[in-house]
Design brief:
With 276 residues, the protein is an alpha/beta fold. The chain has helices at 5-26, 44-52, 66-78, 133-158, 179-192, 216-231, 240-252, 264-274, and strands spanning 57-61, 83-88, 102-106, 124-127, 163-167, 198-203, 206-208, 237-239, 259-263.
Length: 276
């Protein structure tokens, strides 16, 4: 469907006006200024080389989604793991062919105990698994974003995984009255209680990602969020590649705490540092 230029023009002007109002109203809800990663002293290249020499392996849950795809691309590009295992409900195909370091394990998430072997022998685990209530319904959303993730973390811990990285959501709170944020918060807390040697939670805002298909509504949304980030702060949205860079870079660091939560600004700062 073709949309007249005049219609898009009016919509753009309307969005611009809304941006100004929303920026003023939501400035009070901004994330605190990131302190941890704005002046990272470590040499990332040195950290990567030191980590690479340890011949560590990892697994990724949710590699078929946009976040998981971006994370996989980032990890392959940095070449910091000797083996990367993709754990999912189906095998993925790659246009350029699969890397020699890449392994795929197909599992039935409804019977994960039968696939415990797929979670054994990994040093680091990344979870980008998730769905929405709109796609899966209430029960389906809880199964994927809570049950599947929690069981996977349990099997990974039992299989020797010492470092777990969870992509969550801005506003996650186990006491929230909103189902989405409540479930996210519950999973965060329950995995923390498992006692991984290193546990990092990432709470990005709205993920900015360009899709191949052209959809007028998505085009307008990207224009709005892009402009909003420009006039306000990075607390509300973030490019999906920045999240992937932050997760990969944070794996190399050694924070004082065993558990940490990275809010949107922390993720953006760490992702930006990784790109330098």
């Amino acid at each position: 469907m073709n949309i007249p230029d005049t219609t898009l023009g009016k919509a753009t002007w309307l969005l611009t006006a809304v941006i100004v109002v929303v920026a003023a109203l939501l400035s009070y809800f901004d994330d605190p200024d990131p302190v941890k990663y704005t002046s990272m002293a470590e040499d990332m290249k040195t950290l990567e080389e030191n980590f690479r020499q340890q011949n560590k392996s990892c697994f990724i849950l949710g590699a078929s989604g946009e976040s998981g795809k971006s994370l996989l691309q980032e990890l392959l590009g940095r070449n910091i793991f000797s083996k990367i295992t993709l754990i999912g409900r189906r095998r993925l195909s790659f246009e350029d062919g699969a890397s020699e370091a890449l392994v795929q394990e197909v599992v039935d998430f409804e019977k994960l105990d039968d696939y415990a072997a797929a979670f054994q022998g990994h040093d680091v685990g990344y979870c980008c698994l998730g769905t929405t209530k709109a796609k899966a319904g209430t029960e389906g959303f809880i199964r994927v974003d809570h049950d599947y993730i929690l069981k996977s973390a349990e099997l990974a811990k039992a299989g020797g995984c010492t470092q777990f990285h969870l992509e969550s959501s801005r506003g996650a709170d186990k006491d929230s009255s909103f189902l989405y944020l409540k479930v996210k918060g519950q999973v965060e807390a329950e995995i923390e209680a498992m006692g991984f040697d290193r546990y990092a939670v990432y709470r990005p805002g709205v993920l900015l990602v360009d899709r191949q298909e052209s959809r007028p509504v998505e085009w307008l949304a990207r224009k709005f969020l892009g402009a909003f980030s420009a006039v306000c702060s990075t607390s509300m949205s973030i490019p999906i590649q920045a999240v992937a860079k932050a997760m990969a870079s944070n794996t190399l660091l050694r924070p004082e705490q065993k558990s940490e939560i990275l809010e949107n600004k922390d993720i953006a700062a760490l992702g930006k540092s990784a790109g330098k």
